[in-house]
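Bump. Still looking for C1 regulatory protein structure tokens.
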Amino acid sequence: MASPAAESASSRTVPARPNTAFRQLRGRLSPGEFAAAVRRSAREIGEQVSCDARYVGRVESGEIRCPNYAYERVFRHMFPGLSLPDMGFAPRETVRGRGARTAVNAAPLASVPDHSDTCIQICEESDVLRRAFITGGPAAALGIAALPPAGAAAVPGPRAPVGRAGTAEATAVEEAVRRIRLLDDRHGAEGIYHRATQPLRAAYDLLDADVQRRSVADRLHSGAGELAITVGWLAHDSGRFEDARSHYAEALATARVCGDAALEAHAFCNTAFLARDAGRPREAVRAAQAAQHAARHLGSPRLLSLLALREAGGWAVLADRSGCEQALARAERLFAGGPRDNDPEWMTFYGEAELAGLEAQCWAALGEGERAADLARRAVSLQDPHFTRNIALFTAELAGDLADSGSPEEAAAAGMRVLALLDQVRSARIRAILDRTAGRLRGHRGTGAVAEFLERHAASAGSAAH
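Sorry for the wait, here they are.
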């Protein structure tokens, strides 16, 4: 997988120029939507790139003067006939000398184990970043390669005497967040939660380091807070609600310390989601409203739309139909405002599929099974294939909605699709949804499709327990 943080091989003596040609190629897509298109194109040619909105921003700002070879292949696939200069990049020979190219080609590959024992190969093209990942001290623990294999006991990161921290360390924290999120998108949280706590400890160690520039200190705080939210989400999706609550509180405290409104909004957003799932709907409403207050000046209608949906979810569990409908209407209106350059990087998952899926959850909580099923079906059909975990989630919710609306055979068919996806995704939350659906369908076990699903579900549950 090509690392977006490893792209900045340009000389530090050359001032960055905005890449207006690449910005034109993005067109009307938001940075997050364009990043998703890059990932899809990469899969079409067998590449793996961890492209996100921040990477797109770095290209357009001119910070990345020339992409690495994996990204070059993807961009040429997306824009046939265009050369790197046509896309606004500097020719490779003007950016890297022969020595730099030799160093890159000779760089070792870092094997990144995930819960299924597959390896994602990460080639770091930046010498500065490579040193940050392989040398001693807290920054070394931030590489995903430092995570132990699934099933191994979590090993605390090295706690060397805290010295100075700079741009390399801040970038290492941000890169750890991206890599963990990519693994979660594809495989769910259960296999990586405990391993992800190690880079989180290392990131918070770095907050005690001597930092010369305020901009770097701000990046370290924001990065550590985002990492706390990411690890909190892994705990949430693994069914460890108290751990998740603690991590979200840590992120919120970090946001308050550094005055980061975007981080505060994100922490409250996840707190609202957790509170709803944990059976505290009034707290969910209050946290979602606090998130909207924090985000009011961030210039992102899409963020405010998502936060309105979090509020709607709380109202729905409270059976407050009026409050839920008002929040849903606000969410849809804000979503229609379209993507903006100010949309947070972590929101790349929030598109039409997620909007439909979260609305489906609200209607299901209000007892509108058929309406919820229609929206859940739409969420599954629109989902980006990259988000395997979300496809499994919305399909599981579709199965439950169909069971509630009196369509047991369709529910069983959807449940079978989820069971197939659980070979790739490990999520206690998804399994719990499927367990509830199986319970609702037991009264229809005389139907062949339902009987087959119940048998497969029981076998799957038994293997998961072992």
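The beta strands are 110-113, 119-122.

Edit: fixed formatting.
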